[in-house]
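[job 0417] fold request received: KpsF/GutQ family sugar-phosphate isomerase
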Amino acid sequence: MSTSVSKVVPFGSGGRIVQSACRSLSLAAAGLAALEARFEDRDFASTFLRVIGVIMQVRGRVIVTGIGKSGIVARKMTATLTSTGTPAIFLHPADAGHGDLGMITPDDVVLMLSHSGESTELGPIIQYCKRFGIPLAAMTAQPQSTVAQAADYGLLMPEIEEACPNALAPTTSTTVQMAFGDALAIALMEMRGFSADDFHKFHPNGRLGAQLVKVAELMATGDEMPMVREDASLLDATIEMTRARLGGTAVVDRNGRLIGAFTDGDLRRTVTGKQNLTEAVGRFMTKMPLAVAPDELASEALRLMHERNIMLLFVCEQGALVGALHMHDLLHAGVA
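[job 0417] inference complete; emitting structure tokens
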């Protein structure tokens, strides 16, 4: 089925097309500025803080709901809240009256998005919240609307101009809703002290998960870790390097503390100098090599390797050698 329009603008007017795009971005920026300015209003800021307090105190979840474009924003907001430490679930208003109202418990708080505040599909959810005393927070741009009047916590969005030339398609308004959702999620995240470790628990897969992997999860340990004493011979060090296949070996003292490193490059330079392979490796090692802690981010370890132009990094805890990390292991794990 083809889509018809009432008016076709010729492609020849490229300048007008670019101008239209820039106008949309300008209106979006103005909408965000207006939203930021809302926090200067004492009542709005106070309501925002009360909503934060309610969400922090509830034993259940944040039930996020909305219809149409607001519903799409509500889904994104739900995902952001959940991934940053605030349990949340999306409730579709069309399904609410067909059994899904049962997902709302007395331990929850409902966050409702409606630009107009008059979407009839939201009625059953409002009635349910009132009947069972469920806290209802609402984001709307109309203070006299049904949603605004029913809400326990009314978050009045700023008056904005939609980018749509007909002022019909939600554009600037959804940008503002999305930004407010992010602001809410980040405020809650910081209130909870949500750390990079927590983020990794919630994002174990993909590129983000790889960036949050710790050195301890990728390093070689035990028999896989190349290690010799400083009085070991060059031949012994070479055998150890060959066994572990990491391109080098750690050199430790009698207490297992890292004091040096001996790499393939050091071996080539030693052989070129016609040294006797029975000599102690301690004479030819690189003293005080670069090391990282096991709880360091693997991405930071990779950055150090690139910065120092090295392929092998040793891992120490209070000076004691506990592991070895090769660049290939980092790249294989997707760390970048």
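[job 0417] notes: The longest helix spans residues 14-38. The chain has two domains: 16-194, 215-332.
[job 0417] exit 0
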